[in-house]
Structure formats: C-alpha cells, structure tokens
Amino acid sequence: MNCPYCSHYETKVVDSRPTDEGQAIRRRRECLNCKKRFTTYEKVEEIPIVIVKKDGNRQSFNRNKVINGMIRACEKRPVSMQLIEKTADEIERHLNNSMEKEIPSEYIGELVMNSLKEIDDVAYVRFASVYRHFKDINTFMDELNKLLKERK
C-alpha cells in the first residue's frame, strides 16, 4: 500500500477492526518513511451477476425477483418467510460460486424449481406451471406424474 502523503511503498498496519457488520475491515496504517498515518478499507470484491433473458437482453441479478416468485408459489402454503429467504440466499451463493459472469435466466428458474421441489410439492407445481408455460392440462398432468414417480 503506497503512502498517500509521500508515495512510499512500505507501510505497517497499526490497527485492524471489522466494520459494516463484518463486511469490511478498517485498517489503520503508518508509513515507514514519513511516519504519517492513514486509513484503508478492505472488502470482498463482488462481481455482479448478469442474467441473460430468453430474448437475449441482459440485466443485473435481482434477488428480490427470486424471493417474489417463491412467495407467489408458496402463497397459502406452510412455508415460512425465513425458509424462502434462506433458499434465495443459497441460490445467490450458488450463482456467485459458479464464477460465471453471465447466467441464463432458464438456469435460475431451474434452481428455484429444484429448491421448491424439496420444500413443498404444491409450490413447486405452481412455480413450474408459470415458469414452463403449461399450455394445457396434459402438460400439467405430465409434470405431476413425474413428481409422483420421484416421490415413490
């Protein structure tokens, strides 16, 4: 870290402490050349996730859209808001860990559906019916039959 006063490249850390609820570290440094002190902040570099929509448009990942979709699917079901938020956290963590800069929206939809399948069958079928655009009762029944076979 270069000193902002004399541009000397050697400094020592005098004090470190977490800030922003543990999201960053505040470091108090002292220049070994001019002895002046200054503060630096260290935080994890977050690479924004870009979602590639079916029509080719790109937009930033919005965790709230995942949560809202799950809330609609879980409406009047015994699924707590805590579980929905925890699941959204897991999905977001999975996307961040993939290290991909651009992720197809279909992939996120599949992650949500797979998560809902583990949480609540009815919520899963509701989400799948909207996400997969069930055209008629036969496609709906096919999905239900697949779910029943998996459960057996």
From TrEMBL:
Its cofactor is Zn(2+). The keyword Ribosomal protein does not apply. A zinc finger (unnamed) spans 3-34. Keywords: ATP-binding, DNA-binding, Metal-binding, Nucleotide-binding, Repressor, Transcription, Transcription regulation, Zinc, Zinc-finger. Binds 1 zinc ion. It comes from the Bacteria. GO terms for biological process: negative regulation of DNA-templated transcription. Residues 49-139 form the ATP-cone domain. GO terms for molecular function: ATP binding; DNA binding; zinc ion binding. InterPro entries: ATP-cone_dom (IPR005144), NrdR-like_N (IPR055173), RNR_NrdR-like (IPR003796). Negatively regulates transcription of bacterial ribonucleotide reductase nrd genes and operons by binding to NrdR-boxes. Belongs to the NrdR family. This is Transcriptional repressor NrdR.
